[in-house]
């Protein structure tokens, strides 16, 4: 029996970094997906995972699942991806969640959505040592989700598809390294950084309301405020700043980096009629436009 599953990539809309420290964020699943195909073999364990940056996420998923449910070792796993793992779309989380669902179906373990999330989050921490779990939540639940560190709150938001442009900076970010570097800075001045995270929390709470109301101009203003605070955390880069400014100059309501910073992507919330000119302006500053839709469904059988 061959099982096929897929899980979406993600874009962080609001709240990155703060979410590592018991604060909320808003994340959306994107239409580009990771696909997993799995079947039992006669005892051999084989993984063919092109497009997955770190194969340990697949290997650790199988190891922990096997340990938990006393399943066999004979498996063949193949993956494919609709997007480059360079983009920072959460390919590691998507492949983890898609693999869990495939194993769940293959062995009939009847895991709930929350159990899939919990297992995926455990695997992320095992492999990279840090993480809030928001990317696992996006891969599991899809849609647009209000999330608090570790899955304390996972609340799907009833949001219409957002007019969003995503641009890749051309630089691959090292998320664990950036998170650990910021952690060291926080130790030296907890008051300063807690103050910034409190401001980001207020933005996330406001954005949650404005997203549900489809008040895109206000959502854009909140994005700009969030970006200023990310700049004060020193996680943005000159290239990301330039791309955000380009989008704003062409009529975007708001723009910010999306993810850990240090590279990867920026996003802009836009009036749909200005999409072409905004995308061109980002290209003019050497940004790469990534064509995805948001609010995509979570992990599923194919």
Question: Would you mind describing this structure in some detail?
Answer:
The chain folds into two domains: 163 residues, Ribosomal Protein S5, domain 2 (2-Layer Sandwich), CATH 3.30.230.10; 127 residues, 2-Layer Sandwich (Alpha-Beta Plaits), CATH 3.30.70. The chain is 43% helix and 24% strand. It contains nine helices and eleven strands. The strands form two sheets. Strands 1, 2, 3, 4, 5, 6 and 11 form a seven-stranded mixed β-sheet that branches. A four-stranded antiparallel β-sheet has the order 8-9-7-10. Strand 3, helix 1 and strand 4 form a beta-alpha-beta unit. Helix 2 crosses helix 3 and helix 8 packs antiparallel against helix 9.
Q: In total, how many beta strands?
A: 11
Low-pLDDT windows of residues: none
Beta-strand residue percentage: 15-25%
Q: Which class best fits the helix and strand makeup? A: alpha+beta
Largest sheet: 7 strands, mixed
CATH architecture of the largest domain: 2-Layer Sandwich
**What is the N-to-C succession of helices and strands?**
EEEHEHHHEEEHHHHEEHEE
Helix content: 40-55%
| Overall mean confidence score, pLDDT | 94
Cα(first) to Cα(last) distance is 14 Å
The CATH top-level class label of the largest domain: Alpha Beta
If helices are DSSP runs of H or I spanning 4 or more residues, what is the number of helices?
Answer: 9
Q: What Rg is obtained from the alpha carbons, in whole angstroms?
A: 19 Å
> Please, how many domains?
2
Shape: globular
């Amino acid at each position: 029996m061959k099982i096929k599953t897929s899980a979406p990539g993600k874009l962080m809309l609001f709240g990155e970094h703060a979410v590592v420290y018991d604060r909320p964020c808003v994340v959306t699943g994107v239409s580009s997906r990771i696909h997993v195909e799995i079947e039992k073999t006669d005892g051999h364990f084989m993984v063919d995972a092109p497009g997955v940056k770190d194969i340990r996420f697949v290997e650790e998923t199988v190891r922990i699942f096997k340990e938990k449910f006393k399943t066999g070792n004979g498996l063949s796993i193949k993956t494919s991806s609709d997007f480059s793992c360079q983009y920072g779309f959460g390919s590691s989380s998507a492949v983890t969640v898609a693999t869990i669902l495939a194993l769940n179906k293959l062995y009939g373990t009847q895991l709930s959505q929350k159990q899939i999330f919990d297992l995926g989050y455990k695997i992320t921490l095992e492999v990279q040592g840090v993480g809030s779990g928001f990317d696992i939540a996006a891969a599991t639940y899809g849609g647009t989700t209000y999330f608090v560190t570790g899955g304390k709150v996972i609340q799907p938001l009833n949001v219409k598809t957002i007019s969003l442009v995503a641009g890749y900076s051309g630089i691959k970010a090292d998320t664990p390294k950036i998170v650990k570097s910021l952690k060291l800075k926080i130790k030296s001045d907890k008051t300063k950084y807690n103050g910034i995270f409190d401001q980001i929390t207020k933005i996330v709470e406001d954005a949650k309301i404005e997203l549900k109301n489809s008040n895109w101009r206000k959502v854009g203003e909140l994005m700009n405020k969030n970006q200023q605070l990310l700049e004060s955390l020193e996680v943005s880069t000159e290239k990301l700043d330039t791309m955000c400014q380009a989008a704003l100059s062409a009529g975007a309501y708001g723009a910010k980096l999306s993810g850990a910073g240090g590279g990867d992507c920026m996003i802009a919330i836009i009036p749909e009629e200005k999409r072409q000119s905004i995308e061109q302006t980002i290209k003019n500053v050497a940004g790469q436009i990534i064509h995805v839709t948001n609010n995509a469904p979570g992990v599923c059988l194919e």
